[in-house]
Amino acid sequence: MQTNENKVALVSGANTGVGFQIAKALTDNGYTVYIGSRDLQKGQAAVDKLSGKAIAVQLDITDNESILSAVKTIESEYGYLTLLVNNAAVSHAGTSGRTMEEVLGAQRASIASISELKTVWDTNVFGTLALTQAFLPLLKQASNARIVTVSSALGSLTINANPENPYRSNFDAVYGASKTALNGIFLSLAIELEPANIKVHLVSPGFTATALNNFQGTDSVEEGSREPIRVALAEDIPTGSFTGPEGFSGKDNILPW
Questions:
Q1: CB 46 within 8 A of CB 14
Q2: pLDDT in tens, 68-92
Q3: Which of 15, 144, 176, 190 can pair with 37 through a Cys bridge, CB separation 3.0 to 4.6 Å?
Q4: b/e per residue, 172-209, with b = 16+ CB within 10 A?
Q5: CA atoms of 49 and 96, how far apart (whole Å)
Q6: Per-residue pLDDT band at 219 (split at 50, 70, 90)
Q7: What is the pTM of this model?
């Protein structure tokens, strides 16, 4: 088990956007943070912008060899992982440069490319779970370990079933439904890991302007990172939580499943 006070975190997709903001907040609060990035050079560039202790690690969550290499690196250097932040995700696998409206229009269930659906889910669902499964042994070696997975309110079935939801038409079969599946799997994991004292949280940044939506979101990256940062730093939130930005979610930032 973890024998010192040094908290070690891994953030996937941490070289830019919300992932970078989470990593910065963690290093500012004394964590040693592994910056997971598909491109190691971009990960190192992100590390160079941080004042705390951060280490770049090549990480493609759709590549098992890349995942296992990251596990071996952290295992050899620390032997445990206090916090895993699953942030890496993609919104589509089609032509780049399209507007958010064009992407969502092509991802309606009646016409969505099955190939694109599989590609997006391979990252957002299967890759995220594969990364988590691989790091569970190191999480079990830490005291009060936690898993924070960046999801989306767009994945909420309750919200999207409400005709009064102004964003309801944006619930698509490719990206939106991948977050629904992600929520379900990680709620299942939260229940399973309760006896092991490993907390599992899902968190929505809100409609944040990032590469995921062609930077068309209404909130800045700094605004969209507030709730993920709060959850990543908090150690007293009950396991199995699904929260979102203040003003959009309910009491205690809770979102409906």
A1: yes
A2: 999 999 999 999 999 999 999 998 8
A3: 15
A4: bbbbbbbbbbbbebbbebbeebeeeebbbbbbbbbbbb
A5: 27
A6: low
A7: 0.92
Token pair listed for 70: 């990251």
Q: Tell me the pLDDT tens digit for each residue of 109-148.
A: 999 999 999 999 999 999 999 999 999 999 999 999 999 9
Q: What is the 3-state secondary structure (H, E, C) of 233-248?
A: HCCCCCCCEEECCCCC
